[in-house]
Every structure is written in C-alpha cells, then in structure tokens.
Amino acid sequence: ITGQPSVLYYAAPILQ
C-alpha cells in the first residue's frame, strides 16, 4: 500500500 488506493476500494463497500 504505497500511494495505491486499492485498500480503499476494497474496504469502502465492506464498511457500508
């Protein structure tokens, strides 16, 4: 995770 919003796109729908 270095400047990549991959984790965000992976966790965003899970948090919802």
Structural overview:
This protein is mainly α and 16 residues long. The protein is built from one helix and no strands. The protein has one helix at residues 6-15. The N and C termini lie far apart (22 Å).
Summary?
This protein is mainly α.
List keywords for this structure.
single chain, 16 residues, mainly alpha, 1 helix, 0% strand, rod-shaped
Identify the quaternary structure here: single chain
Tell me the major beta sheet: none
Helix/strand/pairing category? mainly alpha
> What's the number of helices?
1
Order of helices and strands: H
Average pLDDT for all residues: 72
Number of strands: 0
Round the Cα radius of gyration to an integer and report it. Answer: 8 Å
Q: Any low-confidence stretches, pLDDT <50, length ≥5?
A: none
